[in-house]
Write the structure tokens for this entry.
Amino acid sequence: MEVSVVLPCLNEEKTIGPCIRSVRAALDQAGVRGEIIVADNDSADRSAEIAREEEARVVDVRYRGYGNALRAGLEAARGRYLVFLDADMSYDGADIPRFVEELRDGADLVIGSRFRGGIDPGAMPYLHRIVGTPALTALANVLFGCAISDVNCGMRALTKEAFEGLDLHSEGMEFASEMMIKAAQAGLSIREIPITLHTDQRGRDPHLRSFRDGWRHLQIMMHFCSLWLFLAPGAGLALGGLALIGWTFGGPLGALAPLVGLCAVFVGVQMLLLGVTAQGRVRGSKYRQSDSPMYRLIRRWVRVDTGLVLGLVAALAGMAVVAWAMSRGLRSAGASGPVPTTCGLEVIRHAALGAVAFICGLQVFFTSVFIGLFGLRVADDEPARRDESSSSDE
């Protein structure tokens, strides 16, 4: 068996038959020995029955979700090359041989591009076409170096070996993004070919939900770059806030600048701690990925006991500085004559620095407690988490 074509299906009785016939005609015309698998996602209509009448192999998928259906169908496939496309006739089965040729030529993953090919009028919502998909594609290219033009295209092909190596787990529409991210991180050969997106032939609303599914795509991207997502802005805010606190401003901004800096430091440190906490959980996440150099550095230097001690020491030192600043301010207020402006600003700056040390110390202390109790997970608990994820909602 050279090729397995997988069609995820949920209540597609109007289009599943024509889709299967289109795929079979393409395979026969190209002389490709293949099979057609319909991954039925617990359809309430005659989709599975029609698929069997068309002599396709039906895989019953108990748990709802685009990712669950595709993963089950791809796992059941017997072919060397795996192709999948939607069962709503939005993609042309005649394009399948082109995908297979790219795999024969050495590609590990082939993805269609609707933007390099064509999009029929009404086939894609306007906002998806000009905002949603281009934005997610640009983000994937910047963060992971995918170098593609259409990250969400639903017609793809990959080798059986590549599929098994990617270890995919997404349950919903974000399955497409997880596949691209992991393929790019694994250094697989990714190619893109232009295809045409046709109008959905089902005559009903699509399963896609713009905000929910867009957020899930964005969420999985943030998951895989959680360190840099939090590290860069967090460090920038913290350092910028310290600079504002230490900079002597004249005029009305003199007292305001340290307060703004104080807020910036608090937010920045919190973002840094969130990034460290997220890295502690990525290793044990269902979205498994290889260790990055930065992750290994954090694992080496960030220790729970070190965080507890440093956090407690910083909090105590901050309390002492705040107490000293308050005492100096009270002495200055009780002195005869007006208090010099420079003295008042100096007191504010010292109080702000003390507050930074105190509050950030508490943040580090309690984050260390959290990581020690709940945050660090090891790879051994992966089977249990996989069982839990299979029962989650769509």
Observations:
- Residues 382 and 388 are 10 Å apart (CA to CA).
- The two ends are 33 Å apart (CA to CA).
